[in-house]
Amino acid sequence: MAQLAIYIDDQLAKRLDKAVKESGKSKSKWVAEAIKNSLQDQWPDGFFENFGNRVGEMESDYSEKNLKLLRESVTEMEDAILKSRKNRADVEL
User: Fold this and answer.
1) 49: left (phi over 0), alpha (psi -120 to 50) or beta
2) Could you name the CATH architecture of 1-40?
3) Chain segment 22-54, per-residue pLDDT in tens
4) Per-domain residue ranges for the chain?
5) DSSP assignment string, 78-90
6) What pTM was computed for the model?
7) Residue among 43, 37, 5 nearest 19 (CA)
């Protein structure tokens, strides 16, 4: 298993300590989970390709261009939400 050393400022360290204490996890486990969550693909495989397909509906006619715009818009929306919450507890979208 790989090890990682990081440097963070004192204010961030205090926030980290508080979050770790509230979670009841070790600091190492908490940080590892935070990294894993931030790196994982939030959308299931094929989500955008099947967008609009429901039982009884015809195949989706979304073009690759529109699917790309949809992906970018969702990411932009998530980023805006997280940025606006910078003074609140972390959330997972």
Assistant:
1) alpha
2) Orthogonal Bundle (1.10)
3) 999 999 999 998 888 777 766 666 666 665 555
4) 1-40, 43-93
5) HHHHHHHTTTS--
6) 0.47
7) 37
